[in-house]
Amino acid sequence: MGVPARTDFLLDPDLVFLNNGSFGAVPRVVQEGYEALQREMERNPVAWLQRRAAELLAAARASVASYVGAEADDVVFFPNPTTAVNMVARTLQLSAGDEIVSTDHDYGAMFRTWTRLCREADASYVRVHIPLPLTTADDYIERVWSAVTPRTRVLFLDRLTSSTALILPVDELCRRARAAGIISIVDGAHVPGHIPLDVSAMGCDVFTGALHKWLCAPKGCSFLYARKEVQSWLNPLVTSWGWESDHPTSSQFIDYHEWQGTRDLSPFLAAPLAIDYCNHHDWPAVQAEGHRLALLTRTRINEFTGLDSIAPDDCIGQLASIRLPDHVDPVALKDRLFDEFRVEVPLPVWDGQPFIRVSFAAYNTEADSDAVVHALRLTLNSPPL
Hints:
Oligomer: single chain
Low-confidence stretches: none
Radius of gyration: 21 Å
Number of domains: 2
């Protein structure tokens, strides 16, 4: 078992790639297996899709379920967490006066999803302000729970936030929600392959995670987990042959959601290859080194900006959002970092504050930290910004 090398991946060798959090890179061996699956399908598309796909998908689901701490029939593939959450959100059929409680750290696509659906239903989308710097788990939990009322139907929780890159405690909130008859949905887009995950132990009703970020699966590979007790009311986003199937399986949940018409199933089927890659490359060591580099980079940038960190070290994984001076134009700075230094890194804005968000994945080294710190020093000290 050895740690991954940069050459295991197809990334441009001249690129300082620090944006695994948006679109992860795929190892060569996984990409080759993914392409082999596509070629196999093209040898006889009818036989592959109509006779083999269900069996292959079942095996892939079993592999993913085992990795995330679930039973095989409690998970189903989706191309991304946004699509998965939209399925659940639309199934809720919100009514006037209903409340969705979340925080102001939720992902932009989720903000738009809940805003639209609540507006259409005359429901309320309650975004609890979680101030920075983050303090304690108890403070976070009580701030969120204080927004719950008798009208609350859903707690929508981030396990690891996107713009601010914070690992947040959700288990206790899921427990309270269950006791109060409130649905708990956890957005774990950044979780698989990044931090430990056991969806059954978490206690949520629904969890979704991307496998194409930190777990190294091909693009368009994510999953949704649903607790057995809630599966019966989850209606498919796309009605297809699984709805009231002529040949039902033992799982209505899988029948309803797995088949959505003709599409490329290869990203899902390649997920076990990605899991195997991680298991054979000392992934705990990869995660530990990514965490070290994220903290190191945060410290080095804070030293020359004079700004404070937004969270304790244990609330950071391999992903860190680091404050930048208020005067920074994030769009212009992002372009300069890429155009002048070949540094690919996002610069999100949260609550009016610009950040630089660095990802340290399996293929990153301390040289990447050196590169972004050097580039940022030069650009922050030179016009125009």
